[in-house]
Amino acid sequence: MADTNGRNSIVGQNYGAAYNQGGYNYSQNKDKENYDKSNSGQKGYYYDARTNITANGGLYDEFSLNEFSSTKIRHGFIRKVYSILSLQLLLTFGCAALAVLYKPFNAFVLTYYSPLFIVGVLLSLPIMIALACAPHMARKYPSNYFILLSITLGMSLIVTLASARTNSEIFFYAFGTTAVVVIGLTIFAFQTKWDFTGWYVFLFMAFLILIVMGIIGIFVRSKAFNLVFAGISAFILSISIIVDTQLIIGGKHKKYEFSEF
User: Fold this and answer.
1) Are 99 and 137 in contact (CB under 8 A)?
2) Of which family is this protein a member (predicted)?
3) How far apart are the first and last CA of the chain?
C-alpha cells in the first residue's frame, strides 16, 4: 500500500511536471510564420486572436479582410453606386426628353409650372440640407432608400421643368455636353494623384451661395447674371463630381468606410 501510494505520488508528480508548461505565444506574426499550409497535403484553417465571428456564425480574419478583400468589396460598392446613378440619370433624362418632345406633356408641365416647382424643391432641398447637417441619416436602412428616392424625384422634376422651356436643339446640346464633362471628370478623378476630398467643407459653403444666387435670380432678369450664375454652378458641380468620385473609389484618397456602403 505504501509502495502503491508512493508510486502514485511519484506518478502524480511526474504527471504534473510533464504538463507544467509556460503560456503559449499567440503572437500574430509568429503564428503566421509557423502555420504549415502543407500539413498532410490539405488546407487547414488559420485561427488567431484577430479571427472574429460574423453575425451568421462564420469566421473572418481581420488581416485577410483588410489586405485581400477590401479591394473586392470596394469594387462591388463602385458598381452599386454607378448602377444607382445610371438609373437616376435615366429617369431624369426620360422625363426631360418627354417634356421637350411630347407636346401634351409639355403643355401640362407649363400649365402647372409653379406648383410642380415647389413640389420639386420640397422633395429635394430640405433633405439635402438635413443630410449635410446629419449625414448618419443616409446610413440607416430603409430610410436611406426613401431619402434617395425623394431626392431623385425632386431633382428630376426640377430638370423636367427647366427642359420644358427650352427647344429640342438646346436640350440635346446640353445633354451631350453634360455627358462628356461627367465622363471626363470621372476619368480624371480615377487617374489623378491630387486629392480633392478635403474640399468638401468649401463645397458645402459654395452650394449655400448658389442657393442664395438662385433665389436672387428669380427677381433679377438679366442675361449677364444668368451667365455668371451658370458658369459658377458648372465649376462648383464639376469639383463636386471629382470629390464624390474620389470618396467612392478610395485608394490614396480619403474614402467612404465599409460601414457606409
Assistant:
1) no
2) Belongs to the BI1 family.
3) 73
253 vs 101: CA distance, rounded Å: 43
pLDDT value, residue 37: 45
* CB-based contact 186:245 (threshold 8 Å): yes
Contacts of residue 148, defined as CB under 8 A and 6 or more positions apart, other chains included, come to: 84
pLDDT in tens, 138-150: 777 787 888 888 9
Q: How far apart are CA 56 and CA 101, in angstroms?
A: 52
Q: Delimit the domains of the chain by residue range.
A: 62-166, 167-249
Q: What integer best gives the mean pLDDT of the chain?
A: 72
pLDDT tens-digit map of 240-251? 888 888 877 765
- Residue that is written with C-alpha cell 422625363 in the block: 95
pLDDT > 70? residue 17: no
Give residues with Cβ within 8 angstroms of 125, minimum separation 6: 154, 211
Residue 229: DSSP 8-state: H
**C-alpha grid cell for residue 245?**
468620385
Predicted pLDDT at 58: 46
Grid look-up 504527471 returns 15
At position 74, the amino acid (one-letter code) is: R
User: Could you give the CA distance from residue 156 to residue 177 in angstroms, rounded to a whole number?
Assistant: 18
Grid cell, residue 151, equals: 431626392
Per-residue pLDDT tens digits for 55-76: 444 444 444 445 445 666 766 7
